[in-house]
Amino acid sequence: MLRADTPGCAALLHANNAGSSLQPRPVIDAVLNYLALEQELGGYEAAIESAAAIQNVYDDLARLIGASTRQIAITDSATRAWNLALASVPFRPGDRILTSVAEYASNYLAFLQLQERVPVTVTPVPNDESGQLSLQALTDLMDDRVRLVAVTHVPTNGGLVNPAQAIGEVVAGSPALFLLDACQSVGQVPIDVTALKADMLTTTGRKYLRAPRGTGFLYVGDRALRELRPPLCDLFGAKWTSRDAYTLRDDARRFELYESNLASTLGLGAAARYAMDIGVERIWHRIRKLADRLRQALDAEDGITVVDQGDVRCGIVTFTVRGIDPAELAADLRPKRINIWHSSVESTRLDMEQRNLRSVARASVHCFNTESELDRLVEAIMVAR
Ligand SMILES: Cc1ncc(COP(=O)(O)O)c(C=O)c1O
Fold this sequence. Notes:
Blueprint lengths: L12 E2 L10 H17 L1 H7 L1 H15 L6 E4 L2 H10 L8 E5 L4 H13 L3 E5 L9 H7 L4 E7 L11 H9 L4 E5 L11 H4 L3 E5 L11 E5 L1 H6 L10 E5 L2 E4 L13 H17 L1 H20 L4 E3 L9 E6 L4 H8 L4 E2 L1 E4 L4 H6 L4 E6 L6 H14 L1
Parallel strand pairs: 1-13, 3-4, 3-5, 5-6, 6-7
Antiparallel strand pairs: 2-8, 7-8, 9-10, 11-12, 12-15, 14-15
Helix pairs in contact: 1-2, 1-10, 3-10, 4-5, 11-14
Bound molecules: pyridoxal-5'-phosphate (PLP).
């Protein structure tokens, strides 16, 4: 059923789900049907006709991560959601931000730009010997000046799953806010924002959730909703009540703008429903089984080194192949309709420099991949080298 639902996998061996996954039929249908409706009725009129379906998207995204509907804002990417979250924190000179070694480049770039405006310090929390964020180091670094703990759950460049719930426990007793970059984990790893004690969580649609490109969402917990204001908002996030005054919406949608791609929004909702219908626990179990098998098969080959870290490892499998550059390897496989990707030091500089890696090949599996596809992938890599 998983494969029958996924037209793309008939002709493709797609192991680039951490880049952008293949959409299942209900997602494709939701997008195409809405585009057709806009042509039939007009853009504004289609939105009125579909108001209930659009509202359901918020309910479904909330259900997916254990939030309530009023805590969800839809964005056009994970980075947009994350930037909004960061920009809404009223930093003061001397505030501290703690982050992870595995942090994604765009997050770190935003820290550097923030530091040009406000003198805050940014400290990456060291990893423990398994390669995940060290809870002891985090505990030791916490003090009253820590305003934000911003951590990546699953990095772009490896199978690591950072111990998000334990991190949330450490942050919870402090004045700091906890922002989790769950871009690579939503749709792959079961997420419950209450158990995570996250104040804000950001993710994208196109990766493990299998939604259309150009989608993402932001979760804003009740404390953050009380304390944080969007850096700027439009007439959707706020009401212009008199010449010199406005009132903000009281829900997370104060972070949205009026204009959005509603076809993609409906696709995002269909993707959340599809994942929940299968069961994220089941998806997670299947992905880990496939990824473990792939790691073992790659490790058994001479000249291939698997470089994943962490106690818990997910569907992202990273490795180096002696004698071939990772980007070249991905390009060699593409004409054979085999999709993998590569990740270089510019995407996760702190982690890659620490491990002396310039670039890694990345095969990221999803529940619709098969064991025989993995065998074929390893064979194709061996032919390419
Ligand atoms: C860990 C992580 N965070 C954030 C992002 C950015 O996501 P987006 O491209 O949707 O902005 C990525 C993208 O690969 C990522 O891997």
